[in-house]
Amino acid sequence: MAAAIAESVRPNAAATDIAEESADIRKTGIDPNYWYPLARSGDVKPKNTCGVSFAGKPIVLARTEKNDVFALEDRCAHRQVPLHLGVVRGERLLCSYHCWAYNKSGACVNVPYLDSNESLPNGVRSYPCREAYGLIFVFPGQPEKAESTPLPDIPTYDNSAYKTRYLDRRIDCHYSFMHENLMDMNHQFLHRSLMGSIRARALDIREGDGWVEVDYTFHRASGKQPLGEKFMLGKRKKTPDFKSDDNADKDIMTIRTGYPYQTLQFWTAGSEEPALDLWNAYVPIDAEQRKNQTYGLMMIRKPGIPGAIHALWPFIAWFTDGIFGQDKDIVEAEQRAFDAQGEDQNNEVFPIIQKLRKLLIESGTPLPDQKGTDPNWNLNEYPMAHSR
Ligand code: FES
Ligand SMILES: [Fe+2]
Predict the structure, then answer these.
(1) Domain that holds residue 373
(2) 238 lines ligand 1 (CB under 6 A)
(3) Pocket test for ligand 1, best of 85, 92, 100, 113 (most atoms within 8 A of CB)
(4) Lower CB density within 10 Å: C or N end of the chain?
(5) How many Å lie between the centroid of ligand 2 and the Cα of residue 163?
(6) Tens-place pLDDT, residues 21-35
């Protein structure tokens, strides 16, 4: 865990502890000057294209015959039709309509019906693009900043002691709701049908330049540890011989927003390696940033018995999908409240979430004003998309 500015955690501290926020968090655009996953590697098949978007900007991803992936603005410079409808030949992308050809830099390199002595038209914008961790990352901001901006560091991904489960879901809410949802473990009540009765206790919060993080421990108020959770996190036990820190007898969860990504690590009592190491990115899809594609890498430590992780995998998948589904429903309900009210009317009392909100506002950029739809909005008028 990172060295940090520690402070005591007072869950009932007044909101006045944090300087008044003048900007609206839900009208804050994400900073485009980072690497964002826009697809999984398998979504862009060899010699094929894939249409994606970042904050309302349409982008085409293409994989060449040499297996290089590149990213261009998804519109032909000629008649503006989407380039993802085109075809890949060799290292070029051909528009499906009049066959203008583009290279990886977006330059138009051939118009089949022009004589060779005629000059070629301008091409389209290209985006820096890299493939890592089974994801395709694009840098949608200022291209000159891409080289000096590192890809996210996910060391557990290559650790053979872990098996990775991918999350790739569209969630109809602003990315800030996702950060708040994961970081505020006081919402275990939402998961009572899957998790039983669990209480989270914040132990410590820390912050630094561009990041905030919190440690929690948990205790079960009643009932048994559910099967899916047991398979994923292991059976909880105390190890009295482990003395390296004060929390040796507790399960510890650390959740960190290191802008713009978020991570969660879970250590069972006494263990030195996390049982669970989760990395998430919430990528805005539309210009108003009220929808996001969530990409997650959930790395789960394999049990001691060789191959056992594969037998347990369906239970782990069922459990994590169930939890994620409940979170999706509730954050989308939060977004509908914002849409109707037209402004953030949240009443936040929890210190780590106050710090998180400040970080997200200060790191982002204001979006155009968004009007509410219904001042007399009522939650009951907006039934949830799914019931669980
Ligand atoms: S619209 Fe693309 S080549 Fe004409
Ligand atoms: Fe949750």
Answers:
(1) 15-29+153-381
(2) no
(3) 100
(4) C
(5) 22
(6) 579 999 999 999 999
150-182 pLDDT per residue, tens: 999 999 999 999 999 999 999 999 999 999 999
Check whether 384 has a pLDDT greater than 50: no
Question: Relative to the alpha carbon of 320, which ligand is closest?
Answer: 2
Distance of CA 3 to the CA centre of its chain: 24
- Tell how many helices (H) and how many strands (E) occur in the chain: 5, 20
C-alpha of residue 265 to centroid of ligand 2, in Å: 14
Residues 212 and 339 in one domain: yes
Ligand nearest to the CA of 111: 1
Average pLDDT over residues 233-252: 55
Residue 12 has a pLDDT of: 40
Q: Is the CB of 318 inside a 6 Å radius of any atom of ligand 1?
A: no
Quickly tell me which residue has 């290559």 as its tokens: 158
Beta partners for residue 110, in sequence order: 101
81 C-beta closer than 6 A to ligand 1: yes
Under DSSP, is residue 16 helix (H, G, I), strand (E, B) or coil? helix
Identity of the highest mean pLDDT range in 10-19, 252-261, 375-384:
252-261
Tally the domains of the chain: 2
Q: 97 CB under 6 A from ligand 1? A: yes
Average pLDDT over residues 114-128: 95
Nearest to 88 by CA among 60, 125, 107: 60
The token pair at 301 is 């430590």
Q: How far is the CA of 88 from the centre of ligand 1 (A)?
A: 15
Instruction: Decide which of 129, 145, 161 is a domain's last residue.
Output: 145
Residue with CA at minimum distance from ligand 1 atom 4: 98
Same domain membership, residue 85 and residue 197:
no
For residue 305, pLDDT over 60 is answered with yes
